[in-house]
From TrEMBL:
Keywords: DNA-binding, Transcription, Transcription regulation. Residues 68-213 form the IclR-ED domain. GO terms for biological process: negative regulation of DNA-templated transcription. Residues 6-67 form the HTH iclR-type domain. Gene3D superfamilies: 3.30.450.40, Winged helix-like DNA-binding domain superfamily/Winged helix DNA-binding domain (1.10.10.10). Pfam families: HTH_IclR, IclR_C. GO terms for molecular function: DNA binding; DNA-binding transcription factor activity. This is IclR family transcriptional regulator. It comes from the Bacteria. It comes from Streptomyces shenzhenensis.
């Protein structure tokens, strides 16, 4: 902590992070141990966070993340989209294919930003807001591959004909972005993904990840 930071706010944010990392919630005693503060401090922090609906406590007294975080989360996608657009535009123009940024939303993959090339005669229509299972399509499969890989760059994923018989795709996961799980990819009308596309998609994913750090 420095003179310019707030100890109380820091503790409150640490509470939220701890709760976000567990599926079963935490008791006051567990939070007290993990924060290294007494139970009275934890009670005050939880009471304040509850007033803003950022924390809720179940009948057993375990604290969990509250629905208020959803209101904050709605503002995340526009910020992520804005940060990713330069890299997506460059990717779409370079490859001549529709580029997209996809994030995990529950058990689905959700396209939050899409850029179509300006110079091609035709390309795949792919819209922001498109949602699909994580295990279907290059975007979702790249994310799943990153979950299984060690904490190094897991490469890129190719698919063919999963959405349309005449389309194929390539995607690479975002690596090293705290709190964001997603991928950058392209979808194109072709029999197969050209060899240079995979590495180029990986470059774009690195650029987006750097913009989000």
């Amino acid at each position: 902590m420095t003179a310019e930071t707030s100890q109380t706010l820091d503790r409150g944010l640490r509470v939220l992070k701890l709760l976000a990392d567990t599926d079963h919630g935490l008791t006051v005693t567990e939070l007290s141990h993990r924060l290294g503060v007494n139970r009275t401090v934890v009670y005050r922090l939880l009471a304040t966070l509850e007033q803003h609906a950022l924390v809720r406590r179940d009948l057993g007294g375990r604290a969990r993340v509250g629905l208020g975080v959803l209101r904050l989360g709605r503002q995340v996608h526009p910020l992520v989209r804005e940060a990713a657009l330069p890299a997506l535009r460059a990717l779409a123009e370079d490859i001549g294919a529709t580029a997209h940024l996809t994030l995990v939303d529950g058990s689905d993959a959700l396209a939050v930003a899409v850029v179509e090339p300006t110079w091609t005669d035709y390309h795949v229509a792919y819209r922001a807001g498109f949602r699909h299972p994580l295990d279907h399509g290059a975007a979702g499969r790249a994310i799943l591959a990153a979950r299984q890989a060690p904490p190094v760059e897991p490469g890129y994923t190719l698919t063919r004909g999963e959405w349309d018989a005449g389309a194929c795709g390539a995607a690479a996961p975002l690596i090293g972005v705290t709190g964001v799980e997603g991928s950058v990819g392209v979808v194109m009308l072709a029999d197969a993904v050209p060899e240079r596309v995979g590495p180029r998609v990986m470059d774009a994913a690195r650029e987006v990840a750097e913009a989000l750090r």
